[in-house]
Amino acid sequence: MTAFERLVTGLVYAIAAFAVLFMVTPLIVTVAASFGSASVFTLPPPEWSLRWYERLGSLRGLLPALVTSVQIATLSTAISLVLGTMCAIGLTRGRVPGSEAIISFLISPLMLPGLVIGIALLQFFREFGLRDAWVSLLLAHVVITLPYVARTVIGALSLFDFTLIDAARTLGCSYVGAVRKVLIPVLGPAFMTSGMFAFLASMDNYPVSIFFSDAWTKTLPIQMLQYVEERPDPTIAAISTGLILLATLAMIVGDRLVGIRRMAQF
Predict the structure, then answer these.
(1) pTM of full prediction above 0.85
(2) Which of 48, 8, 13, 67 lies closest to 220 in space, CA to CA?
(3) What angle (nearest 5°) sits at the alpha carbon of residue 203, between those of residues 197 and 205?
């Protein structure tokens, strides 16, 4: 390796280290602030304490908001997995005119600002007389999570060799059996990856959810913003640490079941 190549390699590693540090530092600050004893965000904290975690049990509205978020995220992810997989199979295996345009339309919510999506869905639901907050939230979150599933499963199906199903059938498998024994195991990592990202995107969504929340139906991000406005203390850091832990657990489970490198391929 020449001196110039060593210089370029060192520069690349330095930039990568800076990027990792830039992204991880806010998370470290949030976790550290949640274990401080001060009533304001102070680093380093004067004393280490669990007082903000103990306070979570007495917070008004936290548990209902958490339950609502988990319900909406679970159901919207399940619906998106079914709809996204059906769309992916139809677009990759069928002869659909304008399939490229349809795929671009399916993943367009990923590229549009959340406020634009929220306003558009709010007007759409009002036109059809839909005013129930919980149902509106569920449908809006399906729109948010569907692109994660459709994009990932379409990518996985485009790489799948469908002649393997024909080969399985020539060896005695029925069509359903070939799909179950050949196709589904290959698509398993795509389901796992897309479902995980869809669930986390739903749990974390604020700009769309704000349009469909009312006094009785709030998601966790909406409730967290209300706490910040009413009493900006490190309690919000304790809640954020819980969400960071949830994302970390999802990554660990994904790594154990699929592998980080394979998840990154989708």
Answers:
(1) no
(2) 67
(3) 95
Q: How far apart are CA 91 and CA 99, in angstroms?
A: 6
Query: Could you tell me the maximum CA-CA distance found in the chain, to the nearest angstrom?
Result: 71
Mean pLDDT value across the chain: 84
Please state, as a whole number, how many other Cβ atoms lie within 10 Å of the Cβ of residue 67.
11
Residue indicated by tokens 């680093």: 43
Nearest 5°: phi and psi at 218? Answer: -130, 140
User: Hunting for tokens 């059996």 — which residue is that?
Assistant: 177
* Pair 143, 117: CB distance under 8 Å: yes
E strands present in the chain: none
Q: Is the pLDDT of residue 266 over 80?
A: no
In angstroms, rounded to a whole number, what is the distance separating the alpha carbons of residues 111 and 4? 39
pLDDT of 98 higher than 70:
yes
Q: pLDDT tens digits for 25-67?
A: 988 888 888 888 777 777 777 788 888 888 887 778 888 888 9
Q: What share of the chain is helix, strand, coil (3-state, %, to 5)?
A: 75, 0, 20
